[in-house]
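Chapter review: from sequence to fold.
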Amino acid sequence: MRFEFPHIAALVLAFILTLVVRVRGVTEHFYLLGDQIRDWGIALRPFSDLPLVGPPTHVRGYTIGPAFYWILWAIRVTLGPWFDNLPHAGGIGQAVLQSVADTFLLFAVWRRTQSVWAALAVIVLVATASFDLALSALVWNPVMGSTLAKIATACVFLDWHRRSTRHAVLTAVAAWGAVHAYTGAAFVTLGVFVTALLDPLVRGERALVRRNLLVLAAVVVLLQLPYLVHQMRTGFRESAMGAVTGSIGRIATGSAPPQLATSVAGYVHALDVIQVAPVTVAFTPLVVVLCGVIVSVRYRRDTVVLMTVLLPQVAAIVGYGLFLGALDAYYYLSLMPAAVLTVVLAAPPVPSAPSSGQIPQLGAIALLAAAVAIVPMRLRHATVFFRLPVYQALIDGSRRIATLRQPMRAIRTEFALPPTGDPEFAYLILGGRLDRQSPWIGVITPTGEVKYRRIESAERQ
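The token string follows.
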């Protein structure tokens, strides 16, 4: 398949359109909560001051490597100056990476299936999912993990694990970097790693198996060196995955049973929340299971499809069945491209071609038409959550106060911020200074105007 100007134009258009829908209005409603304040504040530091591990998790511990902070720091350095280093620059940067990943996946599916319709159906369904769309322009490590997992999947679809050592290394870095960013991406990484070893093995290419094994081992070891240094500095007192290992330990000792039914229900719920909403499909799990059976038969000789499309979903159900905590929908964010690929690749093939292994055409066209038809509904639904409507007022007011060059005792707002919000964060980024002995307090109104209150010396004391 030779890619010429029309193909390149289609890829460029896909990047532009997916980026536009992701960043529209981000400067007005960026979701600035505690996690975003913490992580963007870290990205504002010099590279040498970045943590050697990833963000803390809400179930104790932290992700096992610093790739998320490395990438976020690179975004801050390249895009930050264009946006006064304000936190929505990080959201725009993550949206750019998401659109790069979508375009790369479009290219990969197109090349592998030889069907532009199948590739477009996958990308429209993945990129316009309202839940994913609402999160895409956000400084948040699960989004970064999903992005890197998507890139790793595209690498395998392009057979990079079979090409040069450099291509194999890049594939492994993307896959393991996804785990660094968010632990829930491990199931996609598992599929990529298994493919890199099993695909050449079934072809009898033992030299390639050995090379890939060495590449995977070397990449994992090198990327885990920062974690090792962190553990040495802390005396190995901090467990990165305490909640996970605790759950597995309880199951292994028989004090608690596996939660496979809960895991299945969690995955079905995630499909509905992330991929299907706002459309209501009562038989979503039956559709996915049926399509999985079709794909497993149709592509039974295609190790890449089986291991990168079906294995991650099965592994996630088993893996989360060994986790005894509550399961949130975003845990499965990185699995949505695999779920969509399952449905698209199961679509009916062209009538004149053999059914076994044949790339779908008519079914993919129908899926693409249906996906495009619901895009407006999905775009509207994406505007109802994961937004902070007062963000622009907070930025405008902070900018006005900072330009005075007058140190403030505090910054307050006339509107409510989330419990984890910080009204002074943007003010400090914009060059403002806080002096707890200053007589002045800046109060930002819902329109972005500022009222100044003077506190007398007796009150200050």
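Two observations follow directly from the output. Residues 413 and 444 are 5 Å apart (CA to CA). Residues 391-460 form one domain.
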